[in-house]
Amino acid sequence: MKKDLVVKTNRLNQAFQVLSLAEFHIVQLAIVDARDTGTGLTTDMPLRIDALRYADVFGTTRQNAYMRMKEAEETLFNRRFSFFDEDGKLVKSRWISQVKYLDNEGAIEIVFTPAVVQGISRINGVKEFFTQYLLSQTANLKSVYSSRLYELLIQWRSTGKTPIINLEDFRAQLGVEEDQYKLMSDFKKRVLDLAINDINEKTDIKATYQQHKKGRSISGFSFTFKQKKTDNQLIENKRDPNTIDIFSTMTDAQRHLFANKLSQLPEMGKYSHGTESYQQFAVRIAEMLQTPKKFKELYPYLQKVGFKAA
Prior knowledge:
The protein is of the alpha+beta class. The chain contains 13 helices and ten strands.
């Protein structure tokens, strides 16, 4: 699998609070695929999104994926968002300026507006201005609140903690409507706690939150989070010195890339659970490749799909 790195300006992040989960997924795929082509996005170049790609990434059927894409596109086409530019001027924009249906091919082509194109970048390096995370980290999150909270937290990856976020602002950032979950017990049970548990179970970070009060009422929340240790880190000091050296030379990017290739090999069928998608299988293979034993076991297949030690 390609290293599905999503990079967005933090200003654009804040506009995501109104998107549904399916709309959110379409924009995520657009960001990743635009980066992978090496050309980025333009305001006149249609970006193709295939139902099969959507299905593989987000774990659904191709038919259901195409239905979700079309429904999401229709609402996304009519959505607007506002932001203040570098000069402090209020700007209003739509997300999409053009859509084309390719029903016979199970795909759509979309063209983003200038404001969105400017907010989606394939530039690496400006970490204080861009939020960066792997698409695979949010692909399995089933709640839009989980995805929004993950994006919010990742903006503070360098420190591992957020400032206190005012309750009203926090609800708005998660996209919770004014008339939804007015009782704090409902908000925590149906939104915050579910999102935290989802993130801790399915992403690369483990987060906790602290509530802050003014008087007897909760006025805001702050969060702390840590990067989960990978299997590589856990076994680093216990690694068998006789393990083949090439195990330690495989980067994370290579691991995901070749896991995706391995998932397509017929010979790998014996490792499949049968009901999982190619994308889900690839994620599990990538995890297998983190241990020396499984790496050695799968090495012949890695050679077959073109892996060469550095």
